[in-house]
Amino acid sequence: MGIRIRSGMAIVAALALAGAIVVAGGAEAAGWVPKEPVTVIVPGAAGGSTDLLGRAVEKVWSKYCPQPLLVVNKTGGGGVVGATAVARAKPDGYTLALGYGSGHDLVMPHIQKVEYNPFRDLEPVARLSIHTVVVLVPASSPAKNMKELIDLAKKEKRPLTASVGLTAGAVDLVIRGIASTTGIEITSIPHKGGAEAMTTLMGGQTDMGGGHPSEVIVPLKSNRVRAIAIATPDRDPSLPDVPTLIEQGIRFHTWGSVKGIAVPKNTPKEVIAYYADVFKKVCADPDFRKSMQEISQPVLYLGPEDFGKFMVQASGDYGKLVKQLGLEPK
């Protein structure tokens, strides 16, 4: 009996070894595979839209990568601190940036000097999502769309007021762009962040405001604010019934806040290819897509080459917008 058990154990061990060899051989054939935990830096606070995205990735990560994913929030400088940490990390495939394409990558460098260069110091891996800016009015507003909001401004012959989280932030750029394009006067009122700006808007203390869908979905569902426009060229899949500014005759758009993955420059090509494949599978995963739907974040995957081209275009467009709005450095 004992001999049988040992024989059985030997067979199991042999099969396990054979399986390990097969897995290892497959991994080698497929290219680079991480051999220790992978850290992804979120350049924002826990609970923010980028952090929520990171947690959604974390839930399905083990299906596609043999090593655990460590989600680390590194805040400060409007995202610059976290992005700089990745830019200065070893290009060994164990440190990733989440949120590549946010304002600190695409807008801030056009306005002020930042500690890293998003194109020279980082390499694009994959685009996961775009967080659009949705234009909002308080529930008590008589305006049901952009035309009615503009008519309100003209009828009352006064500047509109807009709650924004930060000066020159994503929402502020949209507000300034609407004012520049339509010719109506809008005064942005900056707050300490999006949460405070939303409180002001819900209280009816300003005429309009905005935010990313995942950040405003709760007040939207509780009918405390009304969505009247999306600022990206296409509608946001998470708010499919809200028309774009362009659809309403306002020839203006932004690229929202892009949420992609990047690695330090000089990371080997096979490492980038490995993660591009992993994130492509993550974006196709039904559980991930369900999580993203629950937090109102559309899944908009692009691979390294297409994402790199998109980043160049978006940065150029934001540069033109910053100049148009008079926000460039003096």
Task: Report what the structure shows.
The protein is α/β, with parallel strands linked by helices and 330 residues long. It has 12 helices and 10 strands. The strands form 3 sheets. A 5-stranded mixed β-sheet has the order 2-1-3-10-4, sandwiched between helices. It has a 3-stranded antiparallel β-sheet with strand order 8-5-9, sandwiched between helices. The chain has a two-stranded parallel ribbon with strand order 6-7. Helix 7 (170-182) links the parallel strand 6 (160-164) and strand 7 (186-190). Helix 2 (49-60) runs antiparallel to helix 11.
Can you give me a brief rundown of this structure?
The chain has 330 residues and is of the alpha/beta class. It has helices spanning 2-30, 49-60, 80-87, 103-106, 108-111, 146-156, 170-182, 194-202, 213-221, 269-284, 286-294, 304-324; strands spanning 38-42, 69-73, 95-100, 122-131, 134-138, 160-164, 186-190, 209-211, 225-230, 257-264.
